[in-house]
Amino acid sequence: MASTASTRWDPRKADTIPTMPTAGADDAPPGDTALAIALRELEELIVGQAEAGDQLPAEAALAESIGVSRLTIREALKVLAGQGLIELSRGRRPTVRQPDSTVMSRFLSVAIRRDSRSVLELLSIRRSLEVLSASEAAKHAGRAALAAMDAALDQMQRAADALDGTDESVARYNTADVAFHEALAMASGNRMLSLLLESLASSLHHSFTQSFAGFMAAGGDIDDAVREHRRIFELVAKGDALGAERAMKRHLERTARDLQSHLSRTAPPA
Amino acid sequence: MASTASTRWDPRKADTIPTMPTAGADDAPPGDTALAIALRELEELIVGQAEAGDQLPAEAALAESIGVSRLTIREALKVLAGQGLIELSRGRRPTVRQPDSTVMSRFLSVAIRRDSRSVLELLSIRRSLEVLSASEAAKHAGRAALAAMDAALDQMQRAADALDGTDESVARYNTADVAFHEALAMASGNRMLSLLLESLASSLHHSFTQSFAGFMAAGGDIDDAVREHRRIFELVAKGDALGAERAMKRHLERTARDLQSHLSRTAPPA
DNA sequence: GAGGCCAAGTTATCAGATACTTTCAGTTGC
DNA sequence: GCAACTGAAAGTATCTGATAACTTGGCCTC
Hints:
homodimer, two-stranded antiparallel sheet, 2 strands, 3% strand, elongated
């Protein structure tokens, strides 16, 4: 049995309804489309009641309960999937997603593709947020978070020792580098900050590898780089927020220089 | 005439195609669905060729040229609309959108709704970025940007003089406040930073008004607040990046205290 | 008890049809 | 000449009905 909306609203035959704004339904804004209704109801369901990982009712059931056709439900689900609220896959019911970095990541990547100047802008933003990350980590880091940072450092050292110029060894080092910064962000206890930094890292990935290339080309000592990271770790572990901030700032300024030198070397100014 | 894909692929009768991964088509990944194809093609069209404001071909034409049904095109368009790449409205063709703050805004708002602790995290992020904004503005601000900041300050002063406790007068002051920070972000020349700060401002709007309430309740002098803003402006105009940073930092720390005091007053700790 | 097979549930996709909106050009009225 | 009305054309919104492919869980075999 249909719960509240037993009769489905069919706009094809409803030439009278649009002219009567407040007819019948209690919560239907005047110029409301079926899609808007579906979106509203579904969003209420998703962010209002469901937990991440929950499964929504099947399309047919949703159509029945909300009172629009299955097609409209599908389109609403597609919009919400685009916004990253749910995940859709064939044969399985829609699942509620934990908010993660993919939405923002994608947004930033598109922005970069549209205008490559965004890269420098985002790098500047990242620097600022990494400094915040170091500062808050020094204030709040717990035992587990510090252990994670330490583990990332170990891996970084191993990857540095094994560097032999192959793409694979470089990739391994970069992975450890990213893992360190990720652990640091986690240590800050600021989950939104983690999310943002993760988005930035993934959309700026290309630039990171380039700045590493610049570092190597400039004859940089990889052990120095590892030491920089370890220094940050120590200051964070000691709870020295100001020191950690400064160390991170220096570290990133060096990285930025490496990228610049790589860019000016490979692509001479027009 | 259909250009390349003259025969439409109908998965209902295509029980052989999925078993033959690399059959025929050059650019069709193995387990590719019609929706994925449509998304890929449309994205290429949108971020690859079109400018913001351009109109895409009609659904029917897209269906024809991409070689999927109109339904699939519609669903792909809905996904892209959810990602903020295009805008859809009845009777009009899909239009390409300029990347703006709404996507991120919405993401942040949902995150806040899911877990209200995110508010404090985002406020901390905002502080960090506002400081960056002040610093970069001091370095790069042009004449026009400075004029915009000055205008916002004037409006703030007028709104402050007219403050009489009514919601409307408070709203007017807050609007001017937001306009000042927006002008500052513009002055920084970092468009991505502007976007991010705008998103943060709109999803934290509620907190802003609360921190203002805290300011007033604590017997704050509104003219002091305006002076703080003017001081930031002067340092930016002078090109004193470090000074502007510090002034902004102080300003926001005061604001954070106001919010705290308001929260502890209205909602005693559990 | 492990592995494979079948059935039910669910999504993906096509086709055809109708109602509502927007846009633009042509016409009318001043 | 120009402004306002009118209508057709283009286009999106939505519903209905049907089929194919995928996922999952239970049953059956060995």
